[in-house]
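The protein record quoted in full:
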Amino acid sequence: MSNEDKIHVIGAGDVLEIRNHPRKAATAPVTPMATHTAYEAPSRPSTYTQPHHQSVERAPAMHYAMLIALTWMLGPVALTLTPAGRRHRGWVALGLVAAAAGLSILLVPYAAFVSVTGSATPLAWTMLAVLAAVGGFTAWARAVYLASAALPPVHRLPRLLRSRVAVCALGLLAPGSGMLASGGRLRAGLWLWLLWPAALGLLVLRNATGMWDHLATTLTNSAAADLLEYCILLAAGAVAAGVLVWLAQALEGARRLAPAPALSRHRGDWFAVALGVSCAALAVGGNPRHVAQQLGDAAVVLGAEGMTIIPLRLTLAADRLDPSRAEYAVRAIALHEARGDRDQAAALRARLDEGLATYVALLGRDAARLETDGSSVDVPAPRLDDPARPGGEEVYYGSLVRSRR
């Protein structure tokens, strides 16, 4: 027996000693699981008391119908109704401050702000209005989203709330509630938030008279007056757009419950827009003379307050709706000249002269024909005074003729 390091020689008669290694102890026999006893949990001592935060009973949760109703009634203050809303103090502070700003604008007239803030009233009032509209509707939309978590799924709602007519009625009554009943939590808050421009426009229109009176007594700059008139026009446009948004969200909530629309949603939207435009055109074009008369009377009232831009726009719209009444064009000429727009006034005057020349020529032709027949005709004498430049005995106001006092 050899290896590379050493050589061992075993001769005859040598005794080999073999060492015995100790054996491992035998393991205990495995007993089956059936022989083990069942595990028993250790019992707590009788002196154990439950912690305080677990012993206090939780207040019962508010019913979802009451929670949703209060959310729409309280506005931005509704953030305090849910634990998730109370958890973020910044949002709660925004809702409370916005609600206070909105109440102050609604309850306190604009003249009262003037007595407190003086010449800084426009800036202070604008900041309060923006805070009440933007901040209030933002906090309100978040409150709606948080409160909607308590609403059960659509299939578990009462049968009445699963009706498209009821959902549409809810959307018309409270904006966003119909969308929430149809299963759109995020869309309900979003549609509600989109109404803040209309709310801001309503605040501006409600205090427009006070703004104009304050501007007329403090500033004589025409640029500030023009800016205020443009703001009033934008406010009126925002209110009109808000009405359309209100109707759209109510119809959208009802459409979400439709099982299978005959048209695709994209094409259905365009059909709905076309239908709305057609209804508006029918309402205006069905009786344009009446609409023009209303616009002309409104222009006269606003012109008496000292405004020029809004009466001019209303008068031009009335002239387009009813061009047979020359008084609208005459009043527009006077307003253009008051604003210094000589070119626009000359263009309107040329159009009027053209129409009157045609009418006078027609009267002369009829008079000549009647003279050849031997009869006479009374030709009305032309007016020497120009209604665009009042100074005569009569002044035209829309469809009325009033004597100057």
